[in-house]
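Blackboard transcription, Thursday session:
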Amino acid sequence: MIVDAHVHLRGDVYPGDRRAGVQALLQAMDQAEISRAVTVGLEPEDNSTIVKAAEDHPSRLIPFIIATPEEATGIISERSVVETGARGIGEVYVRCGPSQLPEAHLRPVLESAREYALPVMIHTGDFSYSAPLLVADMARAFPDVAFILAHMGSIAFVLDAIEAAKTFSNIYLETSGMTSPSMLRRAVAECGPRRILFGSDYPYWHPLVERTRIEAARLGPGVTKMILGENIVCLLDL
Amino acid sequence: MVDELVLDFHTYLGQDAHGDHSQTVDELIATMDACHINQAVVAPFLDFPGPDPQVHRALYESWHRFPERLIPFARLDPRYGRQALEELVFTVDNLGFKGLLFDPASTRSLPYHPKVLSLMQAAAEREIPVLIPTGNAYVGLPEQVAVLAARMPSLKIVLGHMGTAAHALRAIHLASRYDNLYLETSLQQSPFRLPLCFQVVDERRVLFGSAAPYSHPCAELVKIQVAEISPREKAMILGINARALLGL
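(Written on the board underneath:)
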């Protein structure tokens, strides 16, 4: 079973792009022979759509919910986790600015994650506040929270992402947008194969392209199978 | 996918500074065969002058082993002024190299800096294209390359990675403004942006590239396959446009 650990229901790659939505997502998943997908949001307004889509397609979609630090305790509660069926939090963008430490900025979200045993997906790979090593401080402070580094730092910061995951066993690496086959092999060699999760970041990128990246890396059938689905099934206890 | 020859406009040979990425010519040819790629533009991983003074000699020898498959580009560091210029003359005029790769990030050089322009002028005079990798670096933003494009309209510039995902939308719009800017598809992960390229940019200025080994050419080809563009547009991206640009 192939499970995509990172998709969105909304998001356009240029103004006027109208592909996003449940049906387009399911179509893209079918094209890439993906059985299930973890649906993440970018803003709290996405939560209701994500939860509804997962209710409508329980065999295909696995919901994550998203909260800003200011709203975390209101959005992520025992009741809301039960009612929404949320299996994680994300995709979180670190927007702390220069006057606050990232770990302090996100602390309300991370405390909620710890309280309800929810993994947290954090966007990585661009400039400044999405550098993967920023998450290392969070992983140190919250050793019982699982952190998923979306895009595993992308090609620009992939060595930092591998370093972070080598150091902290509660850091997982999600593959979307990290293009290098040799860096994927390096991540497997240095971090082990169990904490690497296939993701596509649909609708920004295409599941078939991202799946081809994993298969082209020549990791062997066992490791490929783990990355393409077994690892996220294990992490989320699906 | 299409019957046309496939030309990959962006690959590397050799080894990068710390050995994190490497590719021999035999590995590249094997990958090209596996992905049904007929020809590839190849440049060294390292700039000249640099830690390996033999990068262009090694590229020349690889080219002569596979003359029908490889299209060599010199890779030069403009900070070395006359030395870089002399190497351009040697590699293009004497060895027959077909283009220039200039990496603003590895050479820490703004594309429009006055010290860079003499090298670009020499490329323009030889009517060879310049491949400039663009993306997430303080030097190498598409806008910085566009300033160069505006100053040297006779220079044909290929925006390597078309800005990567973070800057691709702006790269596409810049290419719509400057006729001498071409868009190369590697590492810009979204197939969904390719239709926009054909909506706003001259259809002859979009080129398939893989940046191998920084990405796998088969995955980069799937991106073209799944893009919602016509078979004719796919053929243009995959080879027709590159061959026209290179005068092949």
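Lecturer's comment: The domain at 7-246 of chain B is CATH 3.20.20.140 (TIM Barrel).
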